[in-house]
Amino acid sequence: MTITAIRGFNDIMPAETAIWLHIEEEARRIFRSYGFSEIRIPLLERTELFKRSIGETTDIVEKEMYTFTDRHGDSLTLRPEGTAPVVRAYIEHKLYKRPISKLYYMGPMFRYERPQRGRYRQFYQIGAEVLSEGSPKLDAEVLEMLMALLKSIGLKGATLDINSLGCRACRPQYKEKVKKFLETRRKVLCENCLRRINVNPLRALDCKSTGCKDATVDVPSILDTICNGCKEHFEEVKRHLSAFDIHPSINPRMVRGLDYYTKTTFEITAEGLGAQNAVVAGGRYDGLVQDLGGPDTPCFGFAIGMERLVLIMKDKEFVREPLLFVAIFGGSEVEMKGTEIIKELRDLGFAVEREYADKGIKAQMKKANKIGASFVLLLGKDEHDRGVVAIKDMKTGSQKDVKLDEIVEVLNKELSTIKKGE
Ligand code: ATP
Ligand code: MG
Question: How many separate domains does the chain show?
Answer without folding.
Answer: 2
